[in-house]
Amino acid sequence: MLAGAGLLTVGCAAPPAPAPAAVRRVRDDLGRDVDVPADPQRVVVLDPNHLPPLLGEAASRIEAVGPLGQVSVESIVGLEPDLILFAADYQDDLDPEVLQRIVPTVAYSLRPSVQDHLRFVASVLGREGAAEDLISGFDAVLAARRAELGLADRPVAGVGMENSEAVATVDVTGPDSVFGELLTGLGVRLVPATVDGAPVEGLLEDLSAENLGTLLGEAETLIVSRRFGGDELERGFAATVDSPVWTRLPAVAAGRVAYVDNQLVYGSFGLRGFEVLLDDIAAQLG
């Protein structure tokens, strides 16, 4: 995960006045009731990708605190925030109880869908209306791309490639993953639906060369999430996509493959990242 931590300042760049007394009580994902400012002005958040769109023009300044997993209590407190959003999934080295003694701290985990995650963050910030506007806008973009691509009810495989120097490992996604959520929004029929009689729900990892043709042979289209990088990563990618088992796949032979940046899928870029990803898919398959 490449998202970092940051301070987001609302309003002018000058230090804000003392936080207002008005507070709201929210229940966080640790089961704690936390009193947060009704109108937070200086927010430290460990997954900042939702915040600028939520706050719109009110977001005047973002300062880096550090990469996820490497943020110290001192660096956070030194920014004098009035609210901390604590990404519990990525911060094993920080204790939210310690932070809570200093600044109101809301801990959260990733939710089943990007929309649910956005709504929770918005509820903490008191920006529910902005969140619904973002979701409505994305739904309109998704509907337009669904009509343009014409993939509704067609067999499509969502494939993940994790490159190494020698070869890329190949995964396939089900509807319960972040990638699968986006693809099912396009109306596709994800394949394979089952493997060895068991449903593919989340991510089925490390397909072998022996079963690759069987599992992906039904797909008319492949949408491949891959990691772009330096020469070593590109060599591993090339070794996979140039192999006979890959080039013989029906979708590959028909030129029905889109390769997209996996950081737009899994990098916590939220709905804005999904829109860029949809543009990329449409450019390659449209």
UniProtKB/TrEMBL annotation:
<comment type="similarity">
    <text>Belongs to the bacterial solute-binding protein 8 family.</text>
</comment>
<dbReference type="InterPro" id="IPR002491">
    <property type="entry name" value="ABC_transptr_periplasmic_BD"/>
</dbReference>
<dbReference type="GO" id="GO:1901678">
    <property type="term" value="P:iron coordination entity transport"/>
</dbReference>
<keyword id="KW-0732">Signal</keyword>
<dbReference type="Pfam" id="PF01497">
    <property type="entry name" value="Peripla_BP_2"/>
</dbReference>
<protein>
    <submittedName>
        <fullName>ABC transporter substrate-binding protein</fullName>
    </submittedName>
</protein>
<dbReference type="InterPro" id="IPR051313">
    <property type="entry name" value="Bact_iron-sidero_bind"/>
</dbReference>
<dbReference type="GO" id="GO:0030288">
    <property type="term" value="C:outer membrane-bounded periplasmic space"/>
</dbReference>
<keyword id="KW-0813">Transport</keyword>
<feature type="domain" description="Fe/B12 periplasmic-binding">
    <location>
        <begin position="1"/>
        <end position="286"/>
    </location>
</feature>
